[in-house]
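Table S2 (continued). Query chain:
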Amino acid sequence: NGLILKFFKLKGFDVSGVELEKDQVHQMQIDYKLQGVKVVQGDITKLKGEGNFDVVIASDVIEHIENDESALKNLYSFVKTGGYLVITVPAHMHLYGKRDKKWGHYRRYDKNNLIRKIKKLENSKIVSMRYWNVLGYFAYFFFEKIMNQPIKEEFRYKQSLLSKLIRGVLDLILKLEELIGGPPIGLTLIAVAQKV
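Corresponding output:
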């Protein structure tokens, strides 16, 4: 939906994007918040870059791709020397379940697994690897593994006072995670690799 493109464009960065789905590309191309941003349709398992981007971000992308190592290699080909590849993926394979299957995930990732895959990239140096959203981990585990039912996410979208309060508390907890440098577990794994 171009959320990350919008965020960085508003921060003053020169951004462009690749999207697999044609209808999503069209929606981003007509979105006034993305005016002037180049968004193209493409399959990252087939596209090769020319090493001309300072930063390439793949947020919740590679878990949807059967051959994730090929996708990582192709994403990395867009990064210039000295630049960065930033990846976010769902964390902890032991959490893999119905929701992942429904969303088209082939897998979730543990740190060692993702480190091994990134180290296969030529001239890569892992700058950062950490978990994010410790509360999400426990909520996901409770609903997916113990209750065996979908997680209740309605509060994220409702405008009730209670929903706003819950989102506010969660935002504070996530900010606290940032201050302490990341928890030992989390719902998401964030990796930053530099091309050296």
